[in-house]
Amino acid sequence: MSLVTVLLAAVGPSALGDPAHETRAQSLDQEIRCVQCENEPIAQSTADIAADMRALVRERIAAGDSDEEIRNFFRRRYGDFVLFRPPFDARTWALWAAPLLLGGAGLVAVLAGRRRRTAAAVDFTPEDGER
């Protein structure tokens, strides 16, 4: 049983003494993307870098940093990609606007296609078909 405890302690990040701080750390672990796995939060990643990042989150919390300061630390170190919710600023406006622009372009294409079909449709009478 003690071997299992030692292995878990070596693999998992050390828990912070304060339950509120540990809750903050777990929340931040869900918001920060693993830079190796790319689509997993560091809380779920088994990569070595993710373990280092989890340890860094706990170190920064123990040092007294706020959640925003910790997010900014990772953002400065790894770029906007590391955050699952990157901030809206001059560099990321296209990322936030892309869904709206693509949806609008799709809507315009559908409406234009319908308009073309209705304009091209000609009402035929049975007499027109006999000619």
Characterization of this structure:
- There is one protein chain.
- The chain is mostly helical and 131 residues long.
- It has two domains: 1-86, Helicase, Ruva Protein, domain 3 (Orthogonal Bundle); 88-131.
- Helix content is 63%, strand content 0%.
- The protein contains six helices and no strands.
- It has helices at 2-11, 19-31, 48-62, 67-78, 93-120, 126-130.
- The termini are far apart.
Summarize the structure.
It is built from six helices and no strands. It is an all-alpha fold.
Euclidean distance between termini CA atoms: 93 Å
**At the first level of CATH, what is the class of the largest domain?**
Mainly Alpha
What is the fold named in CATH at topology level of the largest domain? Helicase, Ruva Protein, domain 3
SSE ordering: HHHHHH
- CATH architecture tag of the largest domain: Orthogonal Bundle
Could you name the key traits of this structure?
131 residues, mainly alpha, Helicase, Ruva Protein, domain 3, 2 domains, 6 helices, 0% strand, disordered N terminus, transmembrane helix, signal, Cytochrome c-type biogenesis protein, metal-binding, membrane
